[in-house]
Amino acid sequence: QAQVVESGGGLVQAGGSLKLSCTASVSNFSMHAVNWYRRPPGEEREWVARMQNGISGYSTNYRNAVKGRFTISREDAKNTVYLQMNSLKPEDTGVYYCSIVGAPWGQGTQVTVSS
């Protein structure tokens, strides 16, 4: 059964770093785009980053608020996508989810950034 499992969240002070991981049990993982989303407290889920395969290789896109601080990457041999988060801010607090076609939403991983 297709699924995603996120991990790596935690409590960190502002300015700190975390690296999230997401392992997906889907077919042909390397062919699919992957996205990271987050749900801030009391708000709707919002898109954070995307990595997709193209003619010239993988390309990435980021939410403006995280550009220059977050980096999405993937390790296709492990069916895993990562989100390296640096210079974290309190407004980055939320539950982080990864998304890939064919798999339902996972449980997410909580990221809390203290000021």
Question: What layout of secondary structure does this protein have?
Answer:
Elements (H helix, E strand, L loop, with lengths): L2 E5 L2 E4 L4 E8 L8 E6 L6 E9 L2 E6 L7 E6 L4 E6 L8 E7 L8 E6 L1
Parallel strand pairs: 2-10
Antiparallel strand pairs: 1-3, 3-8, 4-5, 4-9, 5-6, 7-8, 9-10
Report on this structure.
The protein has about 120 residues and is mainly β. It is built from no helices and 10 strands. The strands form 2 sheets. Strands 2-10-9-4-5-6 form a 6-stranded mixed beta sheet, with no helix packed on it. The protein has a 4-stranded antiparallel beta sheet with strand order 1-3-8-7, with no helix packed on it. Strand 9 and strand 10 form a beta hairpin. The radius of gyration is 14 Å and the shape is globular. The termini are far apart. The model has no long low-confidence stretch (mean pLDDT about 95).
The helix tally amounts to: 0
Shape: globular
Uncertain segments: none
Proportion in helices: under 10%
Average pLDDT over all residues: 96
Beta fraction:
over 45%
From the structure provided, what is the oligomeric state, counting identical versus distinct chains?
single chain
Q: What series of H and E elements makes up the topology?
A: EEEEEEEEEE
Spatial arrangement of strands, main beta sheet: 2-10-9-4-5-6
Task: Please give the number of β-strands.
Answer: 10
The secondary structure category is mainly beta
First and last CA, distance: 40 Å
Radius of gyration: 14 Å
| Biggest sheet record | 6 strands, mixed
